[in-house]
Write a structure and sequence with these properties.
Layout lengths: L10 E10 L4 E11 L4 E11 L1 H14 L7 E6 L2 H8 L2 H7 L8 H14 L2 E4 L7 H14 L8 H4 L3
Parallel strand pairs: 1-4, 4-5
Antiparallel strand pairs: 1-2, 2-3
C-alpha cells in the first residue's frame, strides 16, 4: 500500500538480446521494456555486418536510451555474459581508466558509460534459449531485424576493419 506522502517508484525492466548470422555477419538486436506502471514497448534494429557481442551491447544501450525519467529503478536482463559481467565485475570501469586500449567495441562502451551514470541500472544474467518469455521475444526481434532487406552499415564495426 502506498501512503499519501510516499511516491511509488517506477521500476523498469529492460530485456535484451542480440544476434548475428555468422560472426561477423548480418545482425540485429531486440529489446523489451516493461514497467510496473503497466507500460510495455518493443524495439529492434539490424545491420548488414556486425557481431553478436555488438548487438548484445547495442540492445542494452538502446533500452537505456529509451528511458524518459531520471528517478527510475532499472534492471537490465540479458543472456550476454559479455555485457552483464563487464558491468557487474568491474571490467568496464577498468577499461574506462585505460581508455579502452585494446578492447573491442569501444564506440559502444563509450555510449554505455554515461547511461550507466544516469540510470544506475542493475544487470542480471538469464540463460538464453531457456524458455524465458521476454528473452525469447527479444531473440525473435533480433533475428527478424537481422533478416530485413537493405540493412544499414554498423559504422562503428565496419570502420574498425
Amino acid at each position: 500500500m502506498v501512503r499519501k506522502n510516499e511516491s511509488r517508484q517506477v521500476k523498469v525492466t529492460i530485456y535484451t538480446d542480440g544476434a548475428a548470422s555468422g560472426n561477423p555477419g548480418p545482425g540485429g538486436y531486440g529489446v523489451v521494456l516493461e514497467s510496473n506502471a503497466g507500460h510495455r514497448k518493443e524495439l529492434s534494429g539490424g545491420f548488414r555486418r556486425t557481431t553478436n557481442n555488438r548487438m548484445e551491447l547495442l540492445a542494452a544501450i538502446t533500452g537505456l536510451q529509451e528511458l524518459k525519467g531520471d528517478q527510475l529503478q532499472v534492471v537490465v536482463v540479458s543472456d550476454s555474459k559479455y555485457v552483464v559481467d563487464s558491468v557487474n565485475k568491474g571490467w568496464l570501469a577498468s577499461w574506462v581508466k585505460k581508455g579502452f586500449k585494446d578492447k573491442k567495441n569501444p564506440d559502444l562502451w563509450r555510449k554505455m558509460v554515461p547511461l550507466l551514470k544516469k540510470h544506475k541500472p542493475a544487470f542480471e544474467w538469464v540463460k538464453g534459449h531457456n524458455n524465458h518469455p521476454q528473452n525469447e521475444r527479444c531473440d525473435v526481434l533480433a533475428v527478424l531485424a537481422s533478416k530485413k532487406p537493405s540493412l544499414p552499415a554498423d559504422v562503428g564495426y565496419e570502420s574498425s576493419l
